[in-house]
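DM from R.C. (forwarded with permission)

"hey, sorry to bug you on a friday — could you get me a structure for this? deadline for the figure draft is monday and I only need the backbone to look sensible"
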Amino acid sequence: MDSSKTLFVDKYPKLTGHAGKNREKIMKKDQEQQVKGILILAYVKHIRANKDKDWSKHLDTEDLNLVRGCVLASSWYPFDSFIRMGNAVFKEIADSKLDKVREFGRLDIDNFLKIYRKILVPGDPAGSLIKFIDLIKIHMEADVDIKIIIIGPDFVRYKISAPPEIVEERLLEAFCYQIAGSAEGISIRVGADNVFTKTDQKDGEYETLIRWE
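My reply, with the result:
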């Protein structure tokens, strides 16, 4: 055998039939799930600002080290830390209330826009929201599906889903409300009036309608 050639063995050999349909899913689960720092900076901010809370009830040593350290918007961090931080803020700061989570999303979008202000298209809420959803997807390498369903002249409908073994249902719902609040904030900043959002669970997924005038 020519030793100058490297023998490559595909860990995921080509499959056929039912097994072939699951190949991509198997590969994805085997990969490390992670998010960019921009998605956890708001959580870190709330945790740092509330030192009176016992965050160790929700966070492990790795999470607490991240909170105490320097979180970079462009760096990758463990998806599990993202989930635990979101859960901690949801329970300790929002008191497990979805309306509070939505308000956090509306206010915390300012930190996001300090870096990604170019997603704002004056007079075009739909265009701005499309860019926002695309950025969330780009900055999250995890088994979480976020997609726009339909776009109208004065509304956008999108859905978010994730397997329960990846994200607990109640936390997924809270995340959906947070994103809805951020969508409201973006729409208002590009000139939309009377912005309204409604989030419903449907077939294991969460659909959000955001409408404006």
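R.C.: lifesaver. Residues 1-15, 18-30 have pLDDT under 50 and may be disordered.
me: no worries. The chain is about 45% helix and 15% strand.
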